[in-house]
Design a protein that fits this description.
Blueprint: E1 5-15, E2 27-28, E3 30-43, E4 47-51, E5 56-60, H1 70-86, E6 93-99, H2 109-124, H3 131-146, H4 153-160, E7 165-170, E8 175-180, E9 186-191, H5 203-217, H6 226-231, H7 233-236, H8 238-262, H9 266-282, H10 289-299, E10 304-310, E11 317-322, H11 327-341, E12 346-350, E13 352-353, E14 357-361
Parallel strand pairs: 4-6
Antiparallel strand pairs: 1-3, 1-14, 2-7, 3-6, 3-13, 4-5, 7-8, 9-11, 9-12, 10-11
Helix pairs in contact: 1-2, 1-3, 2-3, 2-4, 3-4, 5-8, 8-9, 10-11
C-alpha cells in the first residue's frame, strides 16, 4: 500500500503599519514574507505532530480538550475547528512541522501554522474552502481553542497575500485590496530576542481596554474623532484614553501610508512608521526597554527611512525600511545591544511573498 505524503509552505507576515487596529474594526497593511512554516502530511491511523524547532512530538485525538504542550494546541485547535466547520471527521495524519520563521518574534508564526494546517487538509481532502474561509476558521481556532483574542489580520495575510504586494484590510467589513509594493525600499527584520507570549502577556488587557473605550463612548472607533477622545479624557480614565487615541491616529496613519506608497514618497512612509512606534510606546504602552534601545539607534542611521516594533508587543521584532543595505550598521548595534542587555539580536532582509500553498506531493 502506498502512503501519500504532501508538503505545504505557509508564510509569516509583517505589518507595515496599523498595529492593534484590526480587532478594533480599523485598517491594517500587512504582507507575507519569505520566511515559512513547512508542513509535511503523511496519511496515518492516528493524529501525530512533530516540531523540529522544539524537538517535540505529540499524539492526540480531535476533541475539545487542550494539550499540555502549548504548541500542540495550535495544531490540534486548527484541525478541531476545521472539523466543526465541515461537520465531518478528518482522516488522521502525521504532521511534520519545520520553520524558517522564528517563534515568538511577532511575525505570526501561530497564524502561519494554523492557516497552513487548515489549508493543507482542505486541499488534501478536497473540502472546497476558499482562502477567506480558511483564514476565518484559523482565526476562530486561535481565539477559542488557544485563547489568544487576536484580530483577523494575521490569518488574512498568511492566506491571501500576493508576491510584491501589501494587503490593505478593512477589519470592520472584512474587505481587502492589494497595494503594489513595486519599487518599495529594502525591508529588514530585526528579532530582538525578547520573546512574547500573547496569551499570558498584556495583549488581552489592551484589547479589553479598547472595548471599554467604545462601550463608554457608545460608538465604534471609525466613528470616533480625536476631539471627542480629548473631550472624554477624564471620563475614560488615562489608560483607556491613551489606547483609544492610539487606535484613531493609527487608522489615519495607515491611510496616509498608502497614499505615500502610491506616490513613492518613501521619506513620508518612514515618518509614519516612526510615529507609529512612538504611539505604541507612549500611548498603547506595549514596547519594552530592549525594543526602544534598538528602534532609537536604528532610526538614527542615515540610510534608514523608519523603523518600529511590529506584532502584539512586549518583545518580538522590528521592521526597518531603508534606502540601502544596513547589515554593517546593524552588526554594530547588535554588539551594543549584547553589551547592554546580554541578549543576542538577529536580523535578516525579507521580501514580500505569496500566501500559503502546496509545494510537493509524493
Amino acid at each position: 500500500m502506498i502512503t501519500l505524503t504532501y508538503t505545504f509552505r505557509s508564510p509569516g507576515r509583517i505589518n507595515l503599519i496599523g498595529e492593534h487596529t484590526d480587532y478594533n474594526g480599523g485598517y491594517v497593511l500587512p504582507a507575507a514574507i519569505d520566511r515559512y512554516t513547512y508542513l509535511t502530511f503523511q496519511e496515518s491511523d492516528h493524529f501525530e505532530s512533530y516540531t523540529h524547532d522544539l524537538n517535540k512530538s505529540v499524539t492526540f485525538s480531535i476533541d475539545g480538550q487542550r494539550e499540555t504542550d502549548t504548541w500542540a494546541n495550535y495544531v490540534k485547535g486548527a484541525i478541531f475547528h476545521l472539523t466543526k466547520y465541515v461537520k465531518k471527521p478528518i482522516k488522521p495524519f502525521k504532521i511534520d512541522v519545520s520553520s524558517t520563521l522564528p517563534i515568538g518574534a511577532g511575525l505570526s508564526s501561530s497564524a502561519s501554522l494554523m492557516v497552513g494546517i487548515i489549508y493543507a487538509i482542505s486541499k488534501i481532502e478536497k473540502l472546497d474552502l476558499d482562502r477567506e474561509r480558511i483564514a476565518q476558521i484559523a482565526h476562530e481556532a486561535e481565539n477559542e481553542f488557544v485563547g489568544v483574542n487576536c484580530g483577523i489580520m494575521d490569518q488574512y495575510a498568511v492566506a491571501l497575500a500576493k508576491k510584491d504586494n501589501f494587503l490593505l484590510i478593512d477589519a470592520s467589513s472584512g474587505l481587502y485590496e492589494y497595494v503594489s509594493a513595486m519599487g518599495f525600499p529594502k525591508i529588514t527584520i530585526v528579532d530582538s530576542g525578547v520573546k512574547h507570549e500573547l496569551a499570558s502577556g498584556g495583549y488581552n488587557t489592551r484589547r479589553n481596554e479598547c472595548a471599554r473605550a467604545t462601550e463608554m463612548m457608545g460608538m465604534q472607533f471609525r466613528e470616533i474623532t480625536l476631539d471627542l477622545i480629548e473631550s472624554k479624557r477624564k471620563t475614560l480614565g488615562e489608560n483607556v484614553y491613551k489606547r483609544a487615541k492610539h487606535v484613531v491616529e493609527e487608522n489615519q496613519r495607515v491611510l496616509d501610508t498608502i497614499a505615500a506608497i502610491k506616490n513613492k514618497d518613501w521619506q513620508k512612509v518612514g515618518e509614519l512608521v516612526k510615529k507609529s512606534h512612538e504611539s505604541l510606546k507612549n500611548l498603547f504602552e506595549v514596547s519594552t526597554d530592549e525594543i526602544d534601545f534598538l528602534v532609537d539607534r536604528i532610526n538614527a542611521l542615515e540610510n534608514v527611512y523608519g523603523a518600529r516594533m511590529i506584532g502584539g508587543g512586549f518583545g518580538g521584532s522590528i521592521i526597518v525600511i531603508s534606502k540601502s543595505d544596513v547589515s554593517l550598521q546593524l552588526k554594530e548595534i547588535k554588539d551594543a545591544y549584547r553589551r547592554q542587555f546580554g541578549i543576542e539580536m538577529k536580523f535578516y532582509p525579507v521580501k514580500l511573498s505569496s500566501g500559503v500553498r502546496k509545494i510537493t506531493q509524493f
